[in-house]
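SEVERITY: medium
COMPONENT: batch folding queue
REPORTER: lab tech (J.R.)

DESCRIPTION
The queue accepted two submissions in a row. Attaching both inputs and their returned structure tokens so the on-call engineer can compare them side by side.

ATTACHMENT 1
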Amino acid sequence: MGYSLDFGWLAGAAGVIARGAAMTLLLIAVTTLAGTFLSILGAAGKRNGPKPLRLAIGCYVEVMRNTPFLVQLFFIFFGLPSLGVRLDPILAAMLAMTLNMAAYTIEIVGAGLDAVPRGQTEAALALGLRPRQVFIKIVLPQALKVIYPALTSQIVIMMLESAVVSQIAVRELTYEADMLQARTFRAFETYFVVTMVYLGLSMGLRRLLVSGGRQVLGAGVS
């Protein structure tokens, strides 16, 4: 029996797909801001903090990078309520995505910090700048410029991994796709359209990040 393609339902489902895409973008926007901030703190602490802090950050990175994201998500959403901590699905998704992304970007940012010549830090300190000023004004901007392409790729990867949070009923793009195909019985057409939407989001997000990076960090960002 042949299969007849039918995209006639798409006009009525455009709003649902758009809302799912908007939720996906909201998740990655919050994750990017929070995850990048945590990664900067983590990378600095891992290199300049006291030994207990360095060990704690190292353990966190290893645990998060060597366990499935789905398990981390379930631990936060289903496990923490056993300890009396109950989170809204969206908050749980944002927390899980932020913690997962930060574990990867700590190493990315750390590589950028290591790439800045030590002599620049020593020269800035000799000129009377405080260590915090040296880090914020001298080291960090150069480090971010070096690692920006890798950071951009990690953000896009995290956006794609956000599909996992549909498992805790966050109404992002994949969740809406699941509901659509359950109502229309048009799985091929539904997931084909959603695949194209994800492709468009990925390409658009990458271009936006590159453009923003050039404006903030200057020429040379790609």
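ATTACHMENT 2
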Amino acid sequence: MTRTLLASALFAFAGAAMAAPVSYTIDPAHTYAGYSVNHLGLSKQSGLFTKVGGTVVVDESAKSGKVDVTIDAASLQTFLADRDAHLKGPEFFNVEKFPTLTFQSDKVVFHGSKPAEVQGKLTLLGVTRPVTLKLVNVNKAKNPMSGKETWGANATTRIKRSEFGMKAFLPAISDEVDLGIALEAVAQ
């Protein structure tokens, strides 16, 4: 009887541990967001946001998760100071009035054993709209530097900037903007 109770308790504990959601903190040293947009029909121009934070929760047993990302709009870099100042101004990202961009989701879609897309809401310039991020290069491993479990992925989507109120220089600068994020998140 004691063996049965002990075995049952161990089995229940192991099952609960496997089924528990795990929280991860976004690693700011290995995460950045970016965009690219067609400029005058001539080339794709791009920029990076270098300050990204937030959390990711993954429940591998339930094949579900949550994502909460905050991007510091003032961290935008295009590597040209005058263009950076213009893009941070009122015609584009208006960083004084809207200091952050956010993406929040409580729906992570798995294909097999890995997350494949994240359905959520992007807030840009105070406007919140549904967005689906497609995930590629999704991996989980023990980080050899920290020894901690870490998820990594690259996520992409395409938005129409005018739907968020960013209408400057349309259509010379394309309405369609490709967004991406390279993300690593470390177990808490």
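NOTES FROM REPORTER
Confidence is low (pLDDT under 50) at residues 4-17.
No errors were logged for either attachment.
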